[in-house]
Amino acid sequence: MNNSYGEIIKISTFGESHGLIIGALIDGFFSNLYISEKFIQKNLNLRKPFTSLFSTQRREQDKVKIFTGIFKNKTTGAPVLMLIKNNDKQSSDYNNISLNFRPGHADYTYFLKYKFRDYRGGGRSSARETACRVASGCVFKNLIYNKGVIVRSYIKKIGFLKINFKYWNYTLNRFFSNLLFINEIKDIINNCKNSCNSLSSEIVIIINGLEPSLGDPLYKKINSTISNYLLSINATKSICFGFNFKNKNSFQVKDEIKNSGFTSNNNGGILAGITNGQPLVIKILFKPTSSTSRKIKTINEKLKNITNKTYGRHDPCVGLRAVPVIESMLYTILINKILKKKIYE
Amino acid sequence: MNNSYGEIIKISTFGESHGLIIGALIDGFFSNLYISEKFIQKNLNLRKPFTSLFSTQRREQDKVKIFTGIFKNKTTGAPVLMLIKNNDKQSSDYNNISLNFRPGHADYTYFLKYKFRDYRGGGRSSARETACRVASGCVFKNLIYNKGVIVRSYIKKIGFLKINFKYWNYTLNRFFSNLLFINEIKDIINNCKNSCNSLSSEIVIIINGLEPSLGDPLYKKINSTISNYLLSINATKSICFGFNFKNKNSFQVKDEIKNSGFTSNNNGGILAGITNGQPLVIKILFKPTSSTSRKIKTINEKLKNITNKTYGRHDPCVGLRAVPVIESMLYTILINKILKKKIYE
Amino acid sequence: MNNSYGEIIKISTFGESHGLIIGALIDGFFSNLYISEKFIQKNLNLRKPFTSLFSTQRREQDKVKIFTGIFKNKTTGAPVLMLIKNNDKQSSDYNNISLNFRPGHADYTYFLKYKFRDYRGGGRSSARETACRVASGCVFKNLIYNKGVIVRSYIKKIGFLKINFKYWNYTLNRFFSNLLFINEIKDIINNCKNSCNSLSSEIVIIINGLEPSLGDPLYKKINSTISNYLLSINATKSICFGFNFKNKNSFQVKDEIKNSGFTSNNNGGILAGITNGQPLVIKILFKPTSSTSRKIKTINEKLKNITNKTYGRHDPCVGLRAVPVIESMLYTILINKILKKKIYE
Amino acid sequence: MNNSYGEIIKISTFGESHGLIIGALIDGFFSNLYISEKFIQKNLNLRKPFTSLFSTQRREQDKVKIFTGIFKNKTTGAPVLMLIKNNDKQSSDYNNISLNFRPGHADYTYFLKYKFRDYRGGGRSSARETACRVASGCVFKNLIYNKGVIVRSYIKKIGFLKINFKYWNYTLNRFFSNLLFINEIKDIINNCKNSCNSLSSEIVIIINGLEPSLGDPLYKKINSTISNYLLSINATKSICFGFNFKNKNSFQVKDEIKNSGFTSNNNGGILAGITNGQPLVIKILFKPTSSTSRKIKTINEKLKNITNKTYGRHDPCVGLRAVPVIESMLYTILINKILKKKIYE
């Protein structure tokens, strides 16, 4: 199924950015577990700083409601449907580009594939859909935490600017409230907005407390599954496991083992596709967003050369908004791997 | 299924490096197509330079035989079973390490997961299994070629040494026969062997002639599928699509469109997870192999600190042997995506 | 996935009978196809005579709305979400049995499995959910018809009463409007209602115009798939393909072949799991419904022996209401098999 | 995948009756479990009485060998490959019918679908393949038995002859060794062979000791899965769950519940697709085999009317040989359902 992921607990997402609603359907989940709209709402709101501060001005309410699969706040074992209403449908932002293919976007490939041009701001390809992954993924957040697993994301680079490691200690919330006071970041972001430009970014994720033996060779190794799902996030270009193995020889990167544990973790917690109990280290590279308000050469549906300019709201650094999405998808991947391992115990 | 891949035509591989046989089972293939053992054998032999020249001295015959699913050399539509006999079973190479966990290898994680130590030279986790992927994948090679698709792999880096671009014009065979005469490469490889070291490598794959519209958003995007399968290859650490997006802003990497085509291809042929008709550009990073004949600290099954030394044959640059494996898996991925697209025509 | 079916075009259904909504999500469908709520609404309304005439008095509006996956009435290729609001939520009907396990129903097994008792009239196990299968399945109805395929269902037996074959010529609608005038049926149904009883039934489905070569041996034979999906319908107990093979020898049931075609069709259009071009003949047996207003011995959640009496509305012959459900699921199965065959052309 | 079944532990079968070998590949199985060729061989031999006594004279050795996935007789967690060599390849038996489509067989439909005529005695469609299901399924037999589950098959009818219930107490082996002494059966079988005829049969399976809560609504109900797999067996025409619900009203078939348990078991151990702890009751109807040595009208590949006569060995009652196949597939289904339930504990 093209629009589902998860081997045991399966998430299906649906909805277009400028359609009526977006949402997620969770199948294969436990019964008799408390889930509350409040908790999911809180996590969705966590997504907002990443979408609005410095970023796009689009103001969504993202009000989520659970419609099926629960009774008196507990799951029944039946599929759980969550819906988020789209309030902020400013199709007008995008009207002037309706007949143009925005370079770097899905417009051209979606038109060729689906013989169809849904110009309403990206439609199904829009990053708005990722709200569904956050809403559904956070349902597993506590289950993961209760097993001692902590997922933390760090912004390593914005454009060419390397983020000072001392900021890596901050929780992501505090990091963002302090963003304004980190001068270099403030400057680089503002320059971007003023020059109608956007920047690449590198996000690092470290997962602590993960039990060993997760992952299923040969073709469902944990790094295979993680890359499959995380590279489905818009604007991702690259994924890397462990610390940088470029230009290295084996003496430089060997992880020796003592009876007190591993002496290092170059491999980033994964050996032969299975977790070894050490922290997972994953790095993802995001390209700069392609919607800017600068002029850019493209063609329209009649294949005529034109110059395009997006008047809509755009994101100077789209990688930042991806952080809650990455974490949510990781909760889903991890709970699935943990349940899969349980089968054989 | 942990040991299968492919959405329509499915490949299952099996067998251990020091077991009796290894092989592949192909299900969902066309009927009435000629396939010959000779052709598969030829492709398997192409794998040998990558495994023996400069590399491991292990000398496999890799003689393949088709046992089911054909009649008078044509496929019947039933599953096709290919078997390769293991002749070169030198378990003795590995005996002294049987109770030790070789760092960087699957030993430790496989022991934890399967409660079982198959010390016969890596067993199921060994790179030997990749011969099965080559044998099965090449069945689709001609189908892909007949559609005008050409898959080419290039070695970009060995250790810190960047390979001169002029060599990128060589077919891979010619490249390898000339390797000996490329002094820098010769030197770096020999140094490695003499110092019992091994090197990382970067492989670039360029795919020309691929039709647009391949790939299925949101979770079966073509980059998702490719990363899922290619990162299942031993020693892979990173995958990257398109040209380097690090430290960039959008002006530097925009692919403008004219009615004569795209003006550039930074995105490497993929937009929003769907091919756009331009060449696919994929880069994979391999870590240095962990089996060297240098001493390395580890523990044995009784959790006692010891020093380990592999007397077996090892590979100074494991990325090189992966090239035919990458190409074979790509044939399988591409034929599946092409057939999937066919459904909707 | 427990709550999805369909190999290429996948339907997921969700919702409980006395929850807020029920619905279906269609993934993998064509783009650029017209679908309208009116057409789906019409088909849902066709379901009503089967649910209300003679049958349960529960009066649902079954008003369907499409929320995603369309733009200007055409499919975009993205998942299509249909929702049906539950208006007629008379939980009070069921209150007096809330702590009792209704024999023959899902109550007992669902309680054991999900550790949870959703007493709201059957919840997820209720036949109400089948409205989702009708709503989604009819989307494929025209596609099937345009290929010359006609699916027709006939009621062969109600209780012990065999329906006169002459009525098999009627379209189902006409059959039902005439039901009142078919005395034997009228009598048997009324007796049922008066004595608070319910009856078994046998439904025969004949599919004409189906192309040969549909079905995928060995484990996705068309009879395997059909039985898998149709036996998921509530109250089904048996499925049979072809004409009755009981107590037969081979001379009695051989289908000889002439160059003008088959001389008979005992095998009901399927040979070795693949269609042969002849009409498919399928027969399904439904058990009598278990909810009646007669007293029946059972236990409550405290495992105390009690007598139960359902005051809610019940169905004297549940097999009748299944007819549109059977047909809808068959449209889904058939379109999937036809698309699967297309891959190999 | 067309040639695999099983949701967690997956079996893939392959091979043609007159090809080199047949076999099975088991993926997703436990590690560290003892399996021995002897045990599998013993179970395969159990299959022989069902295939040779009274039945076909084809004498296979059915010698099985395990090639991968084990080390020192214990499973490693890697895929397990079992191969059975075909010794008794009398293609000559079938030569005279090579250009004819044997009515009632797969010949015609396989020719249309695969554009290919593998006349070697049924090829992939032959019942010989079922040996693979027996070989793989018996691996799970002990696991099931250790959970207190007993699977027993009974022959209820051969042709029109109803088997006296007193024989239902015999284990199947003893039943068969006594077959010769059960006069009615002896007579009916001999008449068959003399008149070159064959008979239908009804097999009843009763499964005791199965835990409740197995089965996954809505589309992976246990009856759905069982029917899907069992109807893939050659010559099956019908499957029925529970006791006969034909011509019944609800008073006749209600299963009341007391705190001491159910008062009856008309539903045959399944409610709403989930086991309720009572014995499962399944009945399967087999058609008479179509290969007889009587003349029968058919066409050849040139579409010319001819008369066909099979000189090969044929089976007077093909349902009998299916018994070990049914049981093996049930072990596979049950272990999968049990493991699936384990996920949620």
Measure the end-to-end span of chain A.
29 Å
Low-confidence stretches of chain A: 53-58, 90-97
Sheet with the most strands of chain A?
5 strands, antiparallel
Q: Which CATH C-level class of chain A is it?
A: Alpha Beta
The named CATH superfamily of chain A:
Chorismate synthase AroC
Strand order of the largest sheet of chain A: 1-2-3-7-4
Shape of chain A: globular
Count the DSSP helices of chain A. Answer: 10
Strand content of chain A: 15-25%
What kind of oligomer do you see?
homotetramer
Number of domains of chain A: 1
- The total of beta strands of chain A comes to 18
What's the architecture of chain A, going by CATH?
Answer: 4-Layer Sandwich
Largest interface: C-D, 91 and 93 residues
Pathway (chains A, B, C, D): Metabolic intermediate biosynthesis; chorismate biosynthesis; chorismate from D-erythrose 4-phosphate and phosphoenolpyruvate: step 7/7
Protein name (chains A, B, C, D): Chorismate synthase
Cofactor (chains A, B, C, D): FMNH2
InterPro entries (chains A, B, C, D): Chorismate_synth (IPR000453), Chorismate_synth_AroC_sf (IPR035904), Chorismate_synthase_CS (IPR020541)
Question: Notable features of this structure?
Answer:
alpha+beta; homotetramer; Chorismate synthase, AroC fold
Written account of the structure:
- The structure is a homotetramer of 345-residue chains.
- Chain A has helices at residues 37-52, 107-114, 130-137, 141-145, 172-179, 183-194, 222-230, 250-253, 318-321, 323-342, and strands at residues 4-5, 10-15, 21-27, 64-68, 70-71, 74-75, 80-85, 150-158, 161-162, 201-208, 236-241, 257-258, 261-262, 270-271, 274-275, 280-286, 296-299, 305-308.
- In chain A, a hairpin with a 2-residue loop joins strand 8 (150-158) and strand 9 (161-162).
- Chain A has a 5-stranded antiparallel β-sheet with strand order 1-2-3-7-4, covered by helices on one side. In chain A, strands 9-8-10-16-11 form a 5-stranded antiparallel β-sheet.
- With 345 residues, chain A is α+β, with helices and mostly antiparallel strands.
- Chain A has one domain (4-342): Chorismate synthase AroC (Chorismate synthase, AroC fold).
- The longest helix of chain A is centred in the last third of the chain and has 20 residues, at 323-342.
- In chain A, helix 1 packs across helix 3, helix 3 packs across helix 10 (323-342) and helix 7 (222-230) packs antiparallel against helix 10.
- Helices cover 27% and strands 23% of the residues of chain A.
- Chains C and D meet through strand 1, helix 2, helix 7, strand 11 and helix 8 of C and strand 1, helix 3, helix 8, strand 11 and helix 9 of D.
- Chains A, B, C, D: Homotetramer.
- Chains A, B, C, D: This is Chorismate synthase.
- Chains A, B, C, D: Belongs to the chorismate synthase family.
- Chains A, B, C, D: It catalyses: 5-O-(1-carboxyvinyl)-3-phosphoshikimate = chorismate + phosphate.
- Chains A, B, C, D: Keywords: Amino-acid biosynthesis, Aromatic amino acid biosynthesis, Lyase.
